[in-house]
Amino acid sequence: MTRQTTSGDDLPSLLLLPPPPHPASRLALNAAYEPPLKAAISKLRDEKVGKDGAVLIVALASPILTGNFRRHKSLSWPHTQSILADLYSLISAICAQLSVPTDIHAGPGSVDARVVLVDYDPSKPVRTDSKPAIEPNNTIIVDLGTFTTAYHPWRYIFHPSNESGYELLSTYLKLFEGIQTLKQTQIVVVDGGLSVSVESRVPSESFPQTSPHSIVCLGGTFDHLHPGHKLLLTAAVLLLKVPETGTSQPCQFIIGITGDELLKRKKYAEYVQPWDERATNTIEFLSSILELSKDGWKRGRAPQVSNNDGEFIALFRDGTIEVRCVVIQDAFGPTITTENMDALVVSGETRSGGNAVNERRKELGWRPLETFEVDVLDAEGIVHKSTDTRDFATKISSTAIRKQKSESRT
Questions:
Q1: Is the pTM of this model over 0.85?
Q2: Which of 21, 62, 243, 298 would bridge with 28, disulfide CB 3.0–4.6 Å?
Q3: What is the longest distance spanned by two Cα atoms in the chain?
Q4: Is 89 within 8 Å of 58 (Cβ atoms)?
């Protein structure tokens, strides 16, 4: 969430996306979501608002969670991260086609698109006769009422011009009443794309449910934070088991970020962002998913970040979620210096590193970390699923972004 200023030009915009088609193949997702995404991104690019560029929150409203009680929700991590990967891949392909920078704070003409998952089942009624409240559950995913209450104000609200798009907008605006006074020009209808439904929708509970974890970790450089990073970070926090407010011990998301010294020999090293900036941008992005406040960002509330012996620590949701950014100087980071960890998130290109971590932990007599593999995004908009064993020479990379920045200054 952009919480640096309350200026209208710097406010984020919202794109409301109804549930994905079934089956949620890449072809069907493209048909349903490419037109609205392309229209929203194009409008924000052309306006060139804000010194850092535009922020677009892409709210995918879909029945993601299962469970009848608020504190006992669950999700299918493989299914959910796969849809996330396809969405971010589609965003990357559109931005490449339109020559729109996608990294965070990339300047005027850039669009920093961030996917936020919202648990919403259009077949079940949503109470709109009472004021919505912030009611988090034991996951990081929120329902439509909580999203409406915590995410505001907006520059624009985009919605697809199809039946499901109008139904979602209608429900959303009923919940949004009294939160922000909107001008008609701020509600923008965009092409709704094709609605593809080959067979009836499969209930969320039919997918194998994933056990959540109290301590999740991952590592990376996170230089010029781009859609591949956003996917990795979002997929990782989906694994968190969020405790109730007032609990003494928060769940922890530990992010090992490569130290500056190790990056001096990187290509276009002069354009590598310093560690502090990379860590700050990582936490700012995560605040888009984790921060919940009834004031939204209208007061310019930035995440509270403390510096503890070189670690950046931020707390979210009344202290129930702790994000720790730590400096790593080798391939292992805190995974072999801290025994009490549960899960490690990797991608196809870092799979071998995950195996090496568990081998080292085994040598130390520690239990192995449960490993979760995120899909890899291709620079051409192709998703390489976690089962792929091919090389990732064409993946979206910070190196390519640094190269572009170098060439633009010559």
A1: yes
A2: 21
A3: 63
A4: no
